[in-house]
Specification:
The protein is mainly alpha-helical. It contains twelve helices and no strands.
């Protein structure tokens, strides 16, 4: 009887909300295409940008600017406004824990994110070929830096804790909600510029798995499945303890728009 009741509920959710799932997968796919393109441009030794800018630190800052801008563009796009622009299973899991996402939506959002990220890297590999697979680019895999796995895990937890803390405080203040995407993009830019040498700056299990699948390189990939969810869930727990669960208004990063909302939304109209 339980199974007979559950299957129609999932089917109905899929039929009703499939555009949001498609958008979530597509947005993360576009993000990964951007990461592959800029990673190749700023990492491959044959690239004109590498020959022009010899300092790897400057190139890393430019990579941060490129990816931060990509994140902002996706969040403020019509598509990002529609789906909420999580583009990260850890983000979706956190909003599920906060009671803002129905179980079926959370599961299908995360499935779409993993598939979209993998598709983005595979499509990039088809177009960029040996440029993307070159050891200096290596499908933009995320791996621990010179400080080792332990500090990479700690770093991933810390940066995601800070990111979700900022998102919750800005997104749940109606007069500031419109700036959530800018804050998130600025942190992505800062993290890639400064933190990337420690953990590779993933914050996203789908992003790391997508690169690992294409590269066939699984070095410490598990830390990206533990660190980001832990950091974000911890941020959510502290936020709820400080302000109360009722202060979490919605799961959208940008809510000042006319697109439909499929979440358990308490955002004032």
């Amino acid at each position: 009887m339980a199974n007979q009741m559950t299957v129609p509920a999932w089917r109905g959710t899929l039929v009703a909300h499939w555009p949001e799932y498609l958008i979530e997968g597509g947005c993360l796919g576009v993000f990964m295409i951007s990461a592959c393109v800029f990673g190749t441009l700023l990492g491959h030794p044959g690239s004109p940008a590498v020959r022009l800018i010899a300092d790897p630190n400057i190139r890393r800052v430019l990579m941060g600017v490129a990816m931060g801008a990509t994140a902002v563009a996706l969040i403020y796009s019509r598509f990002g406004k529609r789906s909420g622009a999580h583009m990260n299973p850890a983000t979706t899991l956190t909003f599920f824990r906060l009671g803002k996402i129905f179980p079926a939506d959370a599961a299908l959002y995360m499935a779409a994110q993993f598939l979209g990220a993998a598709a983005g890297v595979l499509l990039s590999a088809m177009v960029l070929g040996n440029w993307l697979s070159h050891p200096d680019v290596n499908f933009v895999v995320t791996m621990p830096g010179t400080y080792g796995v332990f500090w990479a895990l700690i770093a991933e937890a810390v940066i995601t804790f800070l990111l979700m803390s900022v998102i919750l405080r800005v997104a749940n203040t109606p007069k500031f909600n419109r700036y959530t995407g800018i804050c998130a993009g600025a942190l992505v830019m800062l993290y890639i510029s400064i933190e990337a040498p420690i953990s590779g700056m993933s914050m996203n299990p789908a992003r790391s798995l997508a690169s690992a699948l294409s590269a066939g390189r699984w070095t410490a990939v598990w830390i990206y499945f533990i660190g980001p969810p832990f950091g974000m869930l911890l941020a959510a727990e502290l936020y709820v303890r400080q302000t109360g669960l009722q202060r979490v208004l919605c799961a959208k990063l940008h809510h000042e728009n006319s697109e439909r909302c499929v979440f358990r939304c308490n955002y004032p109209r």
